[in-house]
Predict the structure.
Amino acid sequence: MMLKSRSAKFTRYLAATIIAASFATIASAQTADTILFNGKILTVDKDFSQQEALAIGDGRILATGTSAAMKKLAGDKARLVDLGGRTVIPGLTDGHIHGIRAALTFGTEVNWIGVPTLKDALEKIRAAAAAQKPGSWIVVAGGWTEAQFAEKRRPTPSEVAAIAPDNPVYIQHLYDWLLLSPKAMEALNIRDDNDVTPGGKLARDGDNKPTGIIEAGGNALGRIFDKLPKPTMEQQIDGSKKFFREMNSLGITGIVDGGGVSMYPASYQAVFKLWRDKQLTVRVAYHLCSPKPGSELADVQNLTQLLPPGFGDSMLHFNGPGEIIIWADWTDGDITPDGKAKLAEFLRWAASKGYTIQLHWNPDRTVHDLLDVVEGIDKDYPVRDLRWAVLHLYNASEDSLKRMKSLGLIWGVQDGLYFGGERLQKEVGAEQARMMPRIATAMKLGLVVGAGTDAHRVSSYNPFVSLQWYLDGTTIGGTKTRGDEEAPSRRQALEMYTRNSAFMANDDDKRGTLEPGKFADLAVLSADYMTAPVNDIGKIRSVLTMVGGKVVYAAPPFAER
Ligand SMILES: [Zn+2]
């Protein structure tokens, strides 16, 4: 709250100077309304060149260069910002996140992201129970794992019931486990495995009574989640504003949204409202998932009648179908012949219409099914310029990556193994895990590798935590699972999070680097990303974030204390 009002004050101040300066811009196209000087500006241009200062006019970058040269471009009323030697990066873009969904409930859910102990996590439940009315739901919808807790364990139903006896409590772990308090079991009327289909299993105690723990996958968990009361439209809008500001505080200025389980046409009303009211502080490129199994292609054909490729503007645009295309391929295992045929039919249609696609795929063992389909379509409708991205695929082999490269597919690598690395090590052995994911190999092959988090059910949305993991391959529990031979360099990791993710959003001509003509989307960092110890990269924050030259977040010294 404090920070918000501080940054609002600064924004008003800056807005006034920009309005004053915009008259000067008419006189000379090269007159800047804002100058950032005395810094270390990582432009992330093709040479990864570094500059001391940057001039902004009318929301775009006019020029970069020395402090003296940039100050010469300043109009009479221009705002001069002394960076004090700080590092500036292009605003970060999360190339695959369920941000619109996370935003809807950000104001009403209990957030366990980054909480260091189970004791603190339970304290947040206790505080929510004290603040809310008896009978109202307390929801933790993911973003945590027991490896982050000093206690190294998950909560039990009885300890949750003890601290929130009068509220139904829902605590989801990734897409594999759910804890429901007794009140929640009662409210949802869950008595046996038939109530948690498909594939869910109730854990039972010695008396064969359900304990409240449910082992289930994404599909079943989505169905249970859909039964929870929805936040009101006002709560959704408030949550969305807060979530996007939170993203701004972490240097995020853009997202590629993957839709996701439990996302329906009505789920987009809050983000559209912020967009229409010009209150969106993150650029959104959104994908549209098939809403239900069975009629995927017909549903998406219908929904996209009014959504041609790229429909929208520079703050929000439609980026194409995905990540759930055909529900049959969303099983993380084998796809049936029928499912494969339906996938081919869907993708052929998408290619013929020129849509960008996001494709969820695990594991490498079955990705040939997907690549066969895409190769078949490519003969009739070349897909290489459509920016289709394969997501996840943490165990991609070199052969699969070569096939992806020859089709011009993008590989979107998320930091899921930051949470799941130890489990992977157990499954495949330490030696195999060292090669997962093969980021350096993919880059050597020339693939565009995009960055992102897949937050917030399965991971944290913090891009600096993600950048740290790309560089050191070390999990939240402190286990180094991936070897350095597959690590990107700091430069490459930053390129993944800026220009490559902007490429996934079909926006690389407008943003993702700090070059003249591009939007002034940038973040001034609390520490130097290029020289900070790797272990400290996850702690970096933005102290000043701009979207189109407008301040969307400011912390001291750029906001009044
Ligand atoms: Zn996803």
Residues 324 and 330 are 7 Å apart (CA to CA). The longest strand covers residues 74-82. The pocket of zinc ion is lined by residues 96, 98, 258, 323, 360, 454 (CB under 6 Å).
